[in-house]
Amino acid sequence: MKQVITFLVLCLSLLAPLAVSAGSLSGFELGNKNPTNTRADIGTGFTDPTTGMEFVLIKGGCFQMGSNSSEKDDRPVHEVCVDDFYLGKYEVTQDQYQEITGSNPSFFKGGNLPVERVSWDDAQSYLRQLNSRSNQNYRLPTEAEWEYAARNGGKDEIYAGGNNVNAVGWYGGNSKGKTHPVGQKRANELGLYDMTGNVWEWCQDWFGRDYYGKSPRNNPQGPASGTDRANRGGGWFIDARLARVTVRNWFKPDDNRSFALGFRLARPSVP
């Protein structure tokens, strides 16, 4: 899967943006038909006063992470439990990024567009500056937190918000070769937007191809070390098959600045 995505990113950097048409998927099976939480509750959120970023409280629970019928890196299905946490309602926008760093590296310009062309290291620099100014403890979500939230607390869904990709995300079949302002597509049941498509989203974890086979059950943090960092969700140029909520992707943390790669923030439920 990584080779496919890397090839597409390289092609997009040199040629006109790729538009991939895709319809609804059938025969796709997630591992969790009976999650512990049949619905993760929408709790009290908050707005960061420094950036205006909105956060949703995600109530923790247990779910079957991964898929045995998706990409090989998404296997095996395994039970994971996460604690309560806050997650950004939207991807970090260019205005929010520039407010903290004073710069905007994005290829597609627009204040309410998701920031892109940021490496994992760039995202960490942003977090250090924001935490210093806001006296908060913002971070990137773990892969487990990201998937749990995207799947409405572990529901059996193909995309973040249902099985109709056109309703919930910008991808190669409908994006017209560009990113779009955050929050235009339908949110999932937790009130989170663009968890499918628009830009890939960095996660905190090192990527480990075999990590799912030995992952701890409670609040997995990813491997202790590695060479690549995980990202999730798919981007504006990708085929719908690779925008599924279980699909994993990874890039080098220090120098990969794709114009289909951004991030959203998380925060512990207790600062």
Describe this structure in words.
With 271 residues, the protein is an alpha+beta fold. The protein has one domain (2-21, 33-268): paralog of FGE (formylglycine-generating enzyme) (Alpha-Beta Complex). The chain has helices at residues 2-14, 94-101, 120-134, 143-150, 165-168, and strands at 46-47, 54-58, 61-65, 78-82, 85-88, 200-206, 229-232, 248-251, 261-262, 266-268. The strands form three sheets. The protein has a four-stranded antiparallel beta sheet with strand order 1-2-5-10, with no helix packed on it. The longest helix has 15 residues, at 120-134. It is globular. It starts with a helix and ends with a strand. 51% of the residues are buried.
- Helix-and-strand structural type: alpha+beta
Q: Provide the residue-averaged pLDDT.
A: 87
How many β-strand stretches?
A: 10
Oligomer: single chain
How many distinct domains? Answer: 1
CATH class: Alpha Beta
Low-confidence stretches: 6-42
Condensed summary:
This protein is α+β, with helices and mostly antiparallel strands and 271 residues long.
Lay out the secondary structure.
Blueprint: H1 2-14, E1 46-47, E2 54-58, E3 61-65, E4 78-82, E5 85-88, H2 94-101, H3 120-134, H4 143-150, H5 165-168, E6 200-206, E7 229-232, E8 248-251, E9 261-262, E10 266-268
Parallel strand pairs: 6-9
Antiparallel strand pairs: 1-2, 2-5, 3-4, 5-10, 6-7, 7-8
